[in-house]
Specification:
The N and C termini lie far apart (40 Å). The protein is built from no helices and eleven strands. With 117 residues, it is mostly beta strands. It is globular and about 40 Å long. Strands 2, 4, 5, 6, 9, 10 and 11 form a seven-stranded mixed beta sheet that branches. A four-stranded antiparallel beta sheet has the order 1-3-8-7, with no helix packed on it.
């Protein structure tokens, strides 16, 4: 079964760090772009970061640039979102998707990130 699985969320204090994982099941992310989005209550879904294959080009929302880093493992089965210096405003459900060059899109389920003291 082809699917994308997101994990790694949790409760963290302001200034803390979390690492989210987006895992490909039944395929690999080779030649797929992978993107992390987030959605907070009452707000629109926001593109947080993305990475392409094979070039590895990355892009970030202005709100997270310099604090978050997106990367992938050598097997291209997992994409990570390292989140540092977390702020309460980063609280949201984080979702990942994979998009092929043919326009096929797989969404993973969300993982909750809560930044609170």
């Amino acid at each position: 079964q082809v699917r994308v699985v997101a994990s790694g969320g949790g409760l963290v204090q302001p200034g803390g760090s979390l690492r989210l994982s987006c895992v490909a099941s039944g395929f690999t992310f080779s030649r797929w772009s992978v993107n992390w989005y987030r959605q907070a209550p009452g707000k629109e879904r926001e593109l947080v970061a993305g990475i392409t294959s094979p070039s590895g080009s990355t892009n970030y929302a202005d709100s997270v640039r310099g604090r978050f880093t997106i990367s992938r493992d050598k097997s291209e089965s997992t994409v990570y979102l390292q989140m540092n210096s977390l702020e309460p405003e980063d609280t949201a459900v984080y979702l990942c998707n994979a998009r092929s060059t043919f326009g096929i899109v797989y969404w993973g389920q969300g993982t909750q990130v809560t930044v609170s003291s």
